[in-house]
Amino acid sequence: MITRIYKSLILQMAAVIGLSSCVNNWLDQTPSNGIPTNQAITNYNDAKTAMYGMYDGLQGNSKYNEYYAARMFYYGDVRGDDMQARDQGMRTSSCYEMRYTVDDAPAIWNIPYNVIRRANRIIEAVDNKKILDADKYQKQIDDIYAQAKVVRALVHFDLVRIYGNPYTSDNGISLGVPFVDTALATDAQQGRETVAKVYEKVIKDLTDAVGSGALHKSEKVGEKQGFIDQWAAEALLARVYLYKGENELALSTAKNIIKNSPYKLWEADEYADAWDKMNAKHTKEIMFELINNGTDDWADREGIGYLYNEDGYADAICTKSFVDMLKAEQNDVRISVVLPVQKKTDDKGNPTELYKKYGDEPIFINKFPNGQQGDPRLQNLPILRLSEVYLNAAEAAIKLGGGYMDDAVNYLNDIIKARSLDVNSAKLVDNSTVTLERVLLERRKELVGEGHRFFDAMRNNETIVRYESQDKDKMGWHYALNEDSRKFDRTYFRAILPIPVSEVNANPVIAKQQNPGY
Amino acid sequence: MRRKLMLLISCLVVWVGLVNAQVLKVTGTVTSSEDGLPVVGASVLVKGTTVGTVTDIDGNFSIPNVPETAKILVVSFIGMRTEEVAVTPTINVVLHPDTELLDEVVVTGYGNFKKSSFTGSASSVSTEKLKDVPSVSVQDRLAGSVSGVQITSTSGQPGAVASVRIRGMGSINASNEPLYVIDGVPMLNGNVSEFSYANSGNSLMATLNSNDIESMTVIKDAAAASLYGSRAANGVIIITTKRGSAGKTQFNVKADWGMSDMAINYRPILNGVERREILHLGLKNYMLNAGKSEEEAIAYADSRIDSYAAEPWSGYTDWKDVLFRKGSHQNYEVSAQGGSEKTHFYTSFSYTKQNGITNVSGYERFTGRANVNHKADRVSIDASAMFTNSTQNVNNEATSFANPIMCYAMTASPSTFPYNEDGSFSTVFPALNGANPVQTETYNYNRSVVNRLMGSLGATWNIWENLNLKEILSYDFSQNNEKVWWDPRSNDGRSSNGVMQRVMTNRAKLNTQTQLTYNKTVAENHNFDVLLGFETEDYGYEYVYANGNTYPSYLPEIENAGDSRASSSVSKYRMTSFLGRLNYDFADKYYLSASYRRDGSSRLSRDSRWGDFWSVSGSWRISGESFMESVQGVLSDLKLRASYGVNGTQPTDLYGYLGVFGFGYNYKGNGGSAEMRVDNPNMRWEKNYATNIGLDITLWNRLSMTIEWYNRDTKDLLMNKAISGVTGIIDGSGVANTLMNVGEMRNRGVEVELKSTNIQNKDWTWTTTFNISHNRNTLLKLDGNQNEMINGPLIHRVGEPYYSIYAYEYAGVDSNTGKELYFINGGKGSRETTTNSSEANKTIVGAIEPKVQGGLTNFISWKFIDFNMTLTYSIGGHAFDYATWLQSNGGTYNYVGNVPAYYKIEDTWQKPGDDAKLPQFAYGNKNISSSRWLMSTDHLRIKNLTVGFTMPSSLSSRLGLGKVRAYVAANNLLTWKSKDLYVDPETPVNGLCTFETPALRTVTFGMEIGF
């Protein structure tokens, strides 16, 4: 009996002691879906995978839709006078109505900084020599490194345009955004740098990448579709110079691309169909686009393609004033990428609500067409396009004046010709008729739907007028807006977004640096 | 020859005498003290032997072979107190029902204790009286029965997950649910639905058949819970299922049928005509505010009104009729129990079907259970197995276009209509982008089939005297097979031409427990009881997801889809524990108890993995003292007890401490990786330090009262600390935060429970149970830096309850302009008001937590009628109407959608100088969140009501049956609530109400036959 007790006790004790050493091992579990961070980027393959992850961050998804997946596009469109939210309660309505307070303002903050972090992880891994087979793959690693720098520059540039005053308004002395160049710790609290400082760092990243010679210099279009090559980096640099007012550098950079890159402007007869990514001519002009690859790698119904499409949310349309302006020039092929209502009647032959309201007027931007795949959500997101490079060149040239007028005339006429159905009756300009307004007008017609108008207007101190008065025939398709949002320029406090309330609550340094008026 | 005969006769005599000297024949009757009727099937045993028998249908028994040395007979029957009587040739034994007062047994997985000797805080719920309640969820039977327990539900859809809070909320990011233990084994529970289209989720607890439950014990303090260590910070609910007992086999058949509808009048809205009137007024006011003249304003309103409030061809639509229906409830059950002294069993099989009030929602369940106990020589074996197959259909909730609740309350106005004149589905739904809710519910579905198997096998080996070794092995497996189908003809499915999503998840938990127990009495009065244990837990979760889209037909299976994709993942966790406990008592008067448990979890890094949890408790049975003997007649029991202990909670994320680069960040068809989580090696257990002081008083053996004061400090709470978005560290929804053990919270309160047996005699029984509890929740620390965290209208501020509402303070209507007024609440505490919300400062306008809540239960029985009613009440709590789109006094959603019924035109402001209740209703107004939307959740509700009629046993025994009973039972029968509250008072835990399906009121009629 006693032995029985002792036996069971000893057995239990032995079991306990024996087990406790291998218990810890038994309790170690690793997830099925990840690699511990300190072992993550240690070779070329890892760096490449991380680079894809970085582009994926730019592309976004249905949850991360506040940046290029959707909001970055419509932010620049519906806050101008060429596009508008179709009705109240749409996803684009808040940006269009500009009635928000600091608590419910739209934000483009967390996702961009997340993309910056992904880029910084790659940059740091290379700088800290974590990549063990770097010697074998030096060229490829350098290319990845340069791409990461360009992406970092692109995102900071976007952020400073949204949250800081235009550089040209006060030479960049007002506050911009924090510039991040390392993977910060969770308790970091950075403050805002001036717009000038941010531009300086952005330009440094871009010139480093462009000058390093590591970026792939495409010789044929579409070689690096979806990724940044030498020409895309230079196109971005030209844009940044233009926004900064460095017109000489903008012009020379743009000229280099126009002369030496393989990209060419779409012809008028190619224009309407070339927006479909399956079209053979698509990559002729597109220098950098983000790829929506398939139904498991897209932003689904939160993507800009679905928002702008009639079959999708039909969220935003062109304004009547813009459509009238576009239609006025009947030779202009660009009216073909603005579609009227397609679903005119319902199953029983009665006119649909949309058709009743808009009739046969063209309203829907078709730069994300249904295309051959039949789904606007599968279209790519155009970020840098050759037309913009031409327009940047023309704008920089005309601002410089003097000996540069010829450049302005030539580049503007190139665009006008390429967009005229009948080249011979195109209304070209010459040194006496070319003006900045003419260049800006052409820019509006060309870049509508790509998120540029608002930023261009702020940069050039234009006044945005949605509608003149509340009379029914003067309002076009707009609905009633607050007076201060109906007509405004860059002195309006809502012309820049407030630092998001989530950031202000978590970051006391930035809390003291909120934009005025909020 | 004669000598031989003499020898034979003398031998015979001696032999007979010997036999006579050895055994005795005992006969007798066993009756019940309640009704004087015979107790059929009572067990009569000779104490310490296996000699005995069972009473017959007249309550008579006869034992022919009682040894002469035997002194005591043990008479027992289920539900009645066991009696020991002295052996006499004829005995009449009277059995008394277990009055639940002094002899209440507290069942813990680590031993059963009499309430009188239990040092911790625990309350038992007798489920016997609640067995007829028509509800799918087990938690509904707890409501109002135990003090300190608050039960809320995410939604009224059948199968919805219920939240149980014992003594307030202790954790912010980890679980706040108590641990559920069934027959000694911790069981998996929670939401098993993989989609979040419906807030209700699919509750794993709903797979349990409530009628299998014998009793539930709620353990509230650290001492009683500390043996559960790392999962018991929020209390433990111990469920014991029926085991059967020795005696004749009893069969029981039960069936009930009934109807359900909404328990309250949910969000009433204006009908078509009233809505048209007020919208017209709003358009007119919009023009008047812009400076137009009265005629111009009316002309404008006349010209625009038809685009918002025109009467459809089918007349103004009452969407309540179209989208809701009367729910129904059916339940059928067969059970059998019985056994001998060595083996006893319980088995049951039941089918339940509950249809909800929306056209789609419903829950259907088949459950079977078998429990067997067998006692061999030194080993006793307990085996139980349960299998459930359940099917749940749900409708979308929250702000999905397909949510019928939101359609009724907001987005489907009376001017919209379901069908066109030709019978096709209408697409005129301005607030829903054309999505017709009737079309959606005709074609789409969201269905989940859960199969659950719980099996356990335990053996207790009596090694020597009072040394026992117990081993339990259990396996809890559930599989959820869920499908969501969006038909190509519906709004959700149109753009992809039909989408089918299928998920299959397996959850399996293997649990082993080894316990060595020993008890000894030393020197007559010192009683010791020691327990040593070792436990392991191994949990695995597998997830497979498949998605098909682009359907050429309406056949939903993915083999018919034009395009498909799939995903899968696996996660596991393991835990190992060592535990020990020592109980000591002296002469049944002084009790002392101490326990210790060490847990190691795979969810934390190796350095922080092990947690130590312990407790000490003691009690003094004052009534056992000699100086109390004089008042024994009045004060039957007086006990003072105190306990202090530590429990813990694990983080919810199984791999949260590990910083990883994840995959799936794909681009252009290439696999991409990015940081999925940042390293957190210091993440550790959340700890709960609980103090409990209680006083138990029993007067006249019929009134018992328990008063308890407790303090629960939870520390090292895992907080999603909002960090700067500039770091780029974001979670899956794009919010910048990281998890750290920084928070601290306190729950402190008082609970009082009263149980009284008012009348107990042959004809009448009346018992009352009343409980009331007050809990104050205070947030002590957030993350050390911040004093508060704001999350929409909720604010978590140090020094205030965790869920407090932060909004502008509403000051009524400005009689000059008709706009809403807000108190500025500036620095000097001034009470000036403004109509411009950006000039006002937000402030804490109320807390969600009620001040006082509890329940009152009355059980009355007279002859053959029994009546049981449970009332629940709550005072001092709030909810916040978070359906901001409805609150705009004429904003967008009032024009394209509905207007709440409280907007009576005569109450709105019309012209300057008006002293109006409601602001001016005008087109273009915007909604501002203010304390105007804070609603009081004070309510009194008849939670459960049962009235039963039992056929007199004389009649039923003539039919050859045992007990025949018919009953009417109701759940959520009547609710008295504040006029301002237009949602169900059992609001979600955080108090924010949007469009949850309201709770069901169910009334059923049933029959029960035992034989």
Could you walk me through the main structural features you see in this protein, from its secondary elements to its overall organization?
The complex is a heterodimer of chains A (518) and B (1011). By secondary structure, chain A is mostly helical. Chain A has a single domain, classed as Serine Threonine Protein Phosphatase 5, Tetratricopeptide repeat (Alpha Horseshoe). Chain A has 21 helices and nine strands. Chain A starts with a helix and ends in a 7-residue tail after the last helix. Chain B is mainly beta and 1011 residues long. In chain B, helix 3 crosses helix 4 (294-309). At the A-B interface, helix 1, strand 1, helix 2, helix 5 and helix 20 of A face strand 25, strand 26, strand 30, strand 31 and helix 9 of B.
Q: Which helices and strands occur, and which strands form pairs?
A:
The complex is a heterodimer of chains A (518) and B (1011).
Chain A: H1 2-26, E1 34-36, H2 44-59, H3 71-78, E2 83-85, H4 93-97, H5 110-127, H6 138-163, H7 167-170, H8 195-212, H9 230-244, H10 247-260, H11 268-274, E3 286-290, H12 304-308, E4 316-318, H13 320-328, E5 338-340, H14 353-358, E6 362-365, E7 381-385, H15 386-400, H16 405-418, H17 436-447, H18 453-459, E8 464-465, H19 483-486, E9 487-488, H20 501-506, H21 508-511
Antiparallel strand pairs in A: 2-4, 3-7, 5-6, 8-9
Helix pairs in contact in A: 2-5, 2-6, 5-6, 6-8, 8-9, 9-10, 9-15, 10-15, 15-16, 15-17
Chain B: H1 2-22, E1 23-32, E2 43-46, E3 52-54, E4 60-67, E5 72-76, E6 83-86, E7 90-95, E8 105-108, E9 111-114, E10 122-126, E11 149-153, E12 162-166, E13 179-182, E14 185-186, E15 213-219, H2 222-225, E16 236-241, E17 247-262, H3 272-289, H4 294-309, H5 319-323, E18 327-339, E19 343-355, E20 362-375, E21 379-393, H6 404-411, H7 437-443, E22 445-464, E23 467-486, H8 491-494, E24 499-522, E25 526-549, E26 563-586, E27 590-601, E28 610-621, E29 635-649, E30 660-663, E31 673-677, E32 686-699, E33 703-722, E34 737-760, E35 764-781, E36 788-791, E37 794-797, E38 804-807, E39 809-813, E40 820-823, E41 833-834, E42 843-847, E43 852-862, E44 865-875, E45 878-881, H9 892-896, E46 934-936, E47 939-950, H10 953-958, E48 963-977, E49 992-993, E50 1000-1010
Parallel strand pairs in B: 1-7, 13-16, 45-49
Antiparallel strand pairs in B: 1-4, 2-3, 2-5, 5-6, 8-9, 10-15, 11-12, 13-14, 15-16, 17-18, 17-50, 18-19, 19-20, 20-21, 21-22, 22-23, 23-24, 24-25, 25-26, 26-27, 27-28, 28-29, 29-32, 30-31, 32-33, 33-34, 34-35, 35-43, 36-37, 37-38, 38-42, 39-40, 40-41, 43-44, 44-47, 45-46, 47-48, 48-50
Helix pairs in contact in B: 3-4
